[in-house]
TrEMBL record, chains A, B:
Cofactor: Zn(2+)
Keywords (A to Z) from UniProt: ATP-binding, Ligase, Metal-binding, Nucleotide-binding, Queuosine biosynthesis, Zinc
GO molecular function terms listed in the Swiss-Prot or TrEMBL record: ATP binding; ligase activity, forming carbon-nitrogen bonds; zinc ion binding
Name of the protein this chain belongs to: 7-cyano-7-deazaguanine synthase
Provenance organism: Deferribacter desulfuricans (strain DSM 14783 / JCM 11476 / NBRC 101012 / SSM1)
Source taxonomy: Bacteria, Pseudomonadati, Deferribacterota, Deferribacteres, Deferribacterales
Length: 237, 237
C-alpha cells in the first residue's frame, strides 16, 4: 500500500487534508508538532482523535519547542499578544511563526525517507492563510524542487497541498462531502475549552461554515456578529 | 553590524566556517543541534569552546532528537552500527541522517528571521562529504531558491557554503591561515575521549591534515596506517 504522511495540526484544514489522503487510497502516517503554542494540549487531543478516526498506521508527535526559544510570534511568545481577528488586515499577522512550515516539512521528509512514503500532505491554504508566506503555492513548488535533489533514495517523494487554492467554504464543503470528522478538529489560537470566536482562525473558520451553508459543530465562547446573524437567519428560514 | 548565523557542529569544517564568517566581518550567532548522536556531549563542548574563542554575540542550542525517534541512521539509531571508514565506498554511508541539514537550516532560518541576520553559514563540503545528498551545492542552491519566496521580511537572507568546493586539505590550510581553533574542534563519530581514528570522519580529517602538511592537534586512540607513515616520514625529515 502506498504511504502518505499527513501533517495534522488538529485544525479543520488538516482534518480535511487527512480525509482527502485517505480518500485517495493512501495508508496514513500522521505527524503532529508541538511548539509551545498556547493551545498545544487541545490541538494534540484533536490530533489523536483524528488519527483514531482514520485508523492511522502510525503517528509521530514531535516537539519543536525551539521555536518558542527563538520567539518572534504571538503563538509562541507570551510577550506578544494575539491580535483580535481582522480579516481585512493587509500585513502579516503577529501569529506568524517564522519559517514554521519548512521546519515541519523537513521533519516529515526525514520520516518519509525512513518509511519510504511517497507523499507528504499539508493543508496549507493560500487565499485564506492570513498572508503567511509559507502557505503560498510557490513555497511548496520550491520545496518540491529541493526534494528533487535532496534525498538519498529515489522514492519519488512530493509534497501535496490539496487545499492550496481552496477557500474556507470549499474546505468545509469538501470535509462534509468526505465525512471528515470536523467535530474533532480544533482551530482556535487562543482558547482550549471553548473556541474564542475572536481570533483570526476562529473568524476564518466560522466564515467558511457560513459561506458553505453549514453549522460548525464545535463549541464557542461567543460568536462574531456575522455568524450570529447567519444563525438567526437560518433559524428564521 | 551585519549578523550571521553559523552552524557549528563542533567539527573541523564548522570551526573553519566560523573563522571565515568572522574574517568577513560578521557578528556571529552560533547554532548547534543535538540529535541524540553518539558523541553529543563532546560536540557540545567543542561548540561552546569555539563560541567562546570567537566571542559569539549569542548561541542557540536546539535538541532535534526527533531524528533519533525517526531513526534510519547509524548516528542516531543504536541498532545500526557505525561502519569502519572506507574512503573508496560508493554508496551513501549508514551514518547519513535523512534530510538532516534541511532540518538544521530551517531552524537557522527561523532564528535569522527573528534577529534579522543576513547570512547563514554552513560548512558543508561536496567532495569530501561521504556522498550525503544534503552536502551538495545543488541542495543549497535550491534551499536559497526556497528562501527567496519564504520569508515574511525581506532581509536578503542567504545560505553561504564557503567550503562547498574545498577539499579537506584546503580546509585545514584555510583554518591554519585564519588561526581557527582547530585544537578545540571534534570530528569523530564514535568516541568522546580520544578520537577513534577509524571512522569516516576521522579518516577524512587526518587525510586532510596530512595532505596540508600539518599535524592534527587533537588526541587519537590510534592512527590509521597512512597517517602513521606520514608522521614517521615527517619525523625523519
Amino acid at each position: 500500500m502506498r504511504k502518505a504522511i499527513v501533517l495534522v495540526s488538529g485544525g479543520m484544514d488538516s482534518c480535511v487534508t487527512a480525509a482527502i489522503a485517505k480518500d485517495m487510497g493512501y495508508e496514513l502516517y500522521l505527524l503532529h508538532t508541538n511548539y509551545g503554542q498556547r493551545t498545544e494540549n487541545r490541538e494534540l487531543k484533536a490530533f489523536y482523535d483524528i488519527a483514531s478516526y482514520y485508523d492511522a498506521k502510525d503517528t509521530l508527535v514531535v516537539s519543536i519547542d525551539y521555536l518558542k526559544k527563538i520567539g518572534g510570534s504571538a503563538l509562541t511568545d507570551e510577550k506578544i499578544e494575539v491580535e483580535k481577528g481582522n480579516l481585512n488586515r493587509k500585513e502579516i499577522p503577529k501569529t506568524y511563526v517564522p519559517f514554521r512550515n519548512a521546519n515541519i516539512l523537513s521533519i516529515a521528509t526525514s520520516w518519509a525517507e525512513v518509511i519510504e512514503a511517497e507523499r507528504i500532505f499539508i493543508g496549507a491554504v493560500e487565499e485564506d492563510s492570513s498572508g503567511y508566506p509559507d502557505c503560498r503555492k510557490i513555497f511548496y513548488d520550491k520545496f518540491n524542487d529541493l526534494l528533487s535533489v535532496a534525498l538519498a533514495k529515489d522514492i519519488g517523494l512530493k509534497v501535496e497541498t490539496p487545499l492550496i487554492n481552496m477557500k474556507k467554504k470549499d474546505i468545509v464543503k469538501k470535509g462534509v462531502e468526505l465525512n471528515a470528522p470536523l467535530h474533532l478538529s480544533w482551530s482556535c489560537y487562543k482558547s482550549e475549552d471553548k473556541a474564542c470566536g475572536e481570533c483570526d482562525s476562529c473568524l476564518l473558520r466560522l466564515k467558511g461554515f457560513m459561506e458553505a451553508g453549514e453549522i460548525d459543530p464545535i463549541p464557542y465562547e461567543k460568536f462574531p456578529e456575522f455568524y450570529e446573524t447567519y444563525l438567526i437567519k437560518r433559524r428564521g428560514v
